[in-house]
Amino acid sequence: METYNPADHMVMCRKYKQKLPKMPKPPFPNKLGEELQNTVSAKAWNEWLEHQTMLINENHLSMIDPEAKKFITEQRNKFLDNEDYERPKGWTAQK
Predict the structure, then answer these.
(1) H or E segment and range at residue 11
(2) How many C-alpha atoms does 51 have within 13 Å on its Cβ side?
(3) Is 92 contained in some domain?
(4) Which of 28, 29, 43, 45 has the most other CB atoms within 10 Å of its CB?
Protein backbone atom coordinates (compact mmCIF):
# COMPACT_ATOMS: atom_id res chain seq x y z
CA MET A 1 0.00 0.00 0.00
CA GLU A 2 1.34 3.42 -0.99
CA THR A 3 1.52 6.11 1.66
CA TYR A 4 0.43 9.65 0.90
CA ASN A 5 3.31 12.08 0.78
CA PRO A 6 2.24 15.75 0.48
CA ALA A 7 5.65 16.64 -0.97
CA ASP A 8 4.79 14.52 -4.03
CA HIS A 9 2.01 17.00 -4.78
CA MET A 10 4.15 20.14 -4.65
CA VAL A 11 6.33 21.81 -7.27
CA MET A 12 8.89 24.60 -7.24
CA CYS A 13 6.77 27.00 -9.28
CA ARG A 14 8.71 28.80 -11.98
CA LYS A 15 6.38 31.82 -11.75
CA TYR A 16 6.21 32.23 -7.97
CA LYS A 17 9.65 30.82 -7.09
CA GLN A 18 8.24 28.83 -4.19
CA LYS A 19 6.89 25.38 -3.44
CA LEU A 20 3.18 25.28 -4.24
CA PRO A 21 0.59 22.58 -5.01
CA LYS A 22 1.05 21.12 -8.47
CA MET A 23 -1.59 20.62 -11.15
CA PRO A 24 -3.47 17.35 -10.63
CA LYS A 25 -2.70 16.29 -14.20
CA PRO A 26 -0.61 17.61 -17.10
CA PRO A 27 -2.36 20.39 -19.07
CA PHE A 28 -1.38 18.73 -22.39
CA PRO A 29 -1.08 15.00 -23.22
CA ASN A 30 2.59 15.23 -24.18
CA LYS A 31 6.11 15.93 -22.91
CA LEU A 32 5.40 19.69 -22.65
CA GLY A 33 2.36 18.96 -20.48
CA GLU A 34 4.48 16.84 -18.14
CA GLU A 35 7.15 19.54 -17.97
CA LEU A 36 4.55 22.19 -17.15
CA GLN A 37 2.99 19.98 -14.46
CA ASN A 38 6.42 19.57 -12.86
CA THR A 39 7.43 23.27 -12.99
CA VAL A 40 4.21 25.31 -12.74
CA SER A 41 1.86 25.40 -9.75
CA ALA A 42 -1.87 24.92 -10.09
CA LYS A 43 -2.28 28.55 -8.93
CA ALA A 44 -0.03 29.94 -11.69
CA TRP A 45 -1.64 27.69 -14.34
CA ASN A 46 -5.17 28.77 -13.39
CA GLU A 47 -4.10 32.42 -13.52
CA TRP A 48 -2.60 31.79 -16.96
CA LEU A 49 -5.84 30.20 -18.21
CA GLU A 50 -7.80 33.31 -17.15
CA HIS A 51 -5.27 35.58 -18.83
CA GLN A 52 -5.18 33.42 -21.97
CA THR A 53 -8.98 33.66 -22.25
CA MET A 54 -8.79 37.46 -22.07
CA LEU A 55 -6.08 37.56 -24.76
CA ILE A 56 -8.03 35.26 -27.07
CA ASN A 57 -11.26 37.24 -26.63
CA GLU A 58 -9.73 40.71 -26.81
CA ASN A 59 -7.63 39.90 -29.88
CA HIS A 60 -10.36 37.80 -31.56
CA LEU A 61 -7.94 34.89 -31.95
CA SER A 62 -8.83 31.64 -33.63
CA MET A 63 -6.87 28.81 -32.03
CA ILE A 64 -6.80 26.91 -35.34
CA ASP A 65 -4.65 29.73 -36.77
CA PRO A 66 -0.94 28.80 -36.45
CA GLU A 67 0.01 32.45 -35.83
CA ALA A 68 -2.52 32.71 -32.99
CA LYS A 69 -1.15 29.49 -31.43
CA LYS A 70 2.39 30.86 -31.72
CA PHE A 71 1.33 34.14 -30.07
CA ILE A 72 -0.42 32.34 -27.18
CA THR A 73 2.57 30.03 -26.65
CA GLU A 74 4.95 33.02 -26.53
CA GLN A 75 2.66 34.87 -24.11
CA ARG A 76 2.30 31.77 -21.90
CA ASN A 77 6.07 31.42 -21.60
CA LYS A 78 6.49 35.12 -20.82
CA PHE A 79 3.68 35.00 -18.23
CA LEU A 80 5.07 31.93 -16.48
CA ASP A 81 8.65 33.28 -16.56
CA ASN A 82 7.64 36.72 -15.19
CA GLU A 83 8.71 38.49 -18.37
CA ASP A 84 6.83 41.39 -19.96
CA TYR A 85 3.70 39.76 -21.42
CA GLU A 86 0.79 41.32 -23.28
CA ARG A 87 -2.16 42.49 -21.25
CA PRO A 88 -5.65 43.38 -22.47
CA LYS A 89 -6.28 47.06 -23.25
CA GLY A 90 -7.30 48.99 -20.16
CA TRP A 91 -5.80 46.36 -17.85
CA THR A 92 -4.63 47.56 -14.46
CA ALA A 93 -2.91 45.52 -11.76
CA GLN A 94 -5.10 44.35 -8.90
CA LYS A 95 -4.35 46.05 -5.60
Answers:
(1) strand 10-12
(2) 20
(3) no
(4) 45
